[in-house]
Amino acid sequence: MSRFLHEKYAPLEAYTPGEQPRDRAYIKLNTNESPYPPAPEVLDALGQQDLEDLRLYSDPEGKALKEKLAWYYGCQGENVFLSNGSDDILNFAFMAFGAQGAVFPSPSYSFYPVFAQLHGVPYRTVPLREDFTLDVEGLCHTGCLTVLANPNAPTGLAVGLEAIEGIVASNPDQVVLVDEAYIDFGGESAAELIHRYQNLLVVMTYSKSRSMAGARLGFALGDRELIADLEKLKFSTNPYNVNRLTLTLGAAAVDAAPYFVENAKRIMATRARTAAALQMLGFTFPDSKANFLFIRREGLPGALLYRKLKDRGVLIRHFSDPALADYNRVTIGTEEEMGVFLQEVRAILEEEGLYETG
């Protein structure tokens, strides 16, 4: 770092994105992207006029997209906040609602402590249980900003709406943020609860089920006053945070909802088949409701499996956290991609004397 960086940022441990190597062609099962393209309606949404209009600023309020999302999720436009990816919402939430501190499960999304440190928000974590299930009671009556991913990452486990409502109801004077990046792969959304609880903020993304990670579009649903708080911070930092093309594509994706719903079902079916095959190979993992599996194999170090698969052209995600060192997170790709993944896993197990053919 340079000598000009403010001293308060010197100890900051930045978030580490999943690797994006360019040295060869890989089957990418490491960043939880969709294996399928956006809907045809999205691909056809842009015309020459849209490109020519890039000379103009985007609508800072994103009214057209807000209205479509509000219709889809059964609320009003004033209950919707748009952002440049859902991480922007998390950033604003820690900034806006973290005055009394923050609490979140661990292990979970590793960006949560980064945002807390960035904004000087004192935080504590509530450990997951030994089987990786959420300690719901530990997130009740916290007295501070409470953040949880449902389904959780990297485990993929989800809790039901009753548990979420219990957490929200127990913290009436603090914001509860439910990060639903993976909700469309088998979870139960808390979106309907925003009409009953002023302190609930539900955060979603276009990056997973809607196949638009590169478009950088996220949104939040919540009480109109919570949304107004986020808007105040947005208009104080970057009013045009969502570009013109992404707004248009985002609206087209809402119109094409049946397409992404069907793709989510395809991914869930592939997840089930992959899970069954991995179980036959001796792997264990939580019951994922996300578009990935969090896998472990007795006798096979997680780092070793990651390295050997990478050498074979298959990328998965390994974490440096010692508590997770035995595990790897594997994104669910197409049936063909998962077939290659399983083939290479079998070959590695054979090499390590952990699998016998025939």
Quote the distance from N terminus to C terminus: 56 Å
Mean pLDDT: 96
For this structure, the quaternary state is single chain
The biggest beta sheet is recorded as: 7 strands, mixed
Strand order of the largest sheet: 2-8-7-6-5-3-4
The low-confidence parts are none
Overall, the morphology is globular
Q: What would your notes on this structure say?
A:
The protein is of the alpha/beta class and 358 residues long. It is 35% helix and 15% strand. It is built from eleven helices and 13 strands. It has helices spanning 40-43, 48-52, 63-73, 86-97, 111-118, 161-170, 224-235, 244-255, 257-280, 302-311, 335-351; strands at 27-28, 80-83, 102-106, 123-127, 145-149, 176-179, 200-205, 218-222, 283-284, 292-297, 314-315, 317-318, 327-331. Helix 6 (161-170) links the parallel strand 5 (145-149) and strand 6 (176-179). It starts with 26 loop residues before the first strand and ends in a 7-residue tail after the last helix. The model has no long low-confidence stretch (mean pLDDT 96).
